[in-house]
User: Fold this.
Amino acid sequence: MASNELIRIQKIIADAGIASRRKAEELIQKGLVKVNGKTVTLGDKANPKKDEIIVQGRKLNSSAKSKKYYVMLHKPRGYITTMSDERDRKCVAELIKDFPTRLYPVGRLDRESEGLLLMTNDGAFANEIIHPSHHVAKTYRVTVHPRISEEQLTALTKGVLVDGRLSSPAGIKVLAQERERTVLEIILEEGRNRQIRKMCEAVGLEVARLKRTAIGPIKLGMLQPGKYRELTPQEMKALANARKKAESRKEETR
Assistant:
């Protein structure tokens, strides 16, 4: 970055790991951000190398790029995928400790879902994982009621209408079948809000349990609910390679 380059203030705050860009915008709108002693408004810009930026009364230190953290969390059921909640519900932020900066969830898992959730203070990394154009596949173990039929299985595989739009084809494998339930493995490359639950509802199935087991090559493994760990360098490399391959496949189909 050039020494005189101006950047939107919400991006400066997000890059420093203080808050997500959306949360930073909320702080600006509430008048909680100042630059050189002046309260800023949404759309204002600053130079993080020269200007004094105060966020909620605390000086933002942008002289050195903050360390980036990449963490996998096993989100338990009953937690919402936010950093705080006005209704005092349990949030994933309560589970992540021992880091000098706040980490933010990469994408979402709804309150009653569980499993692998990535957390980071790297906004660019988060966007690469969740943006549909990057096609990073997510794998889920899903228990549905009642027992799935061949017609329902075919419909889910080909795609069904979700909120007025046809869902992308899904990779589906039957893992177990009983008289009144079926356990499925579902692989999706898109990630709309409550998508699997809505897909199943569209074909007459009820989701009893939904667990994300992998994001690209990153697997939840034996990590226990409520526990977390940093991604290894090997996992980060594997994830980067998976994104590159997905981009190559996308280019080939154009």
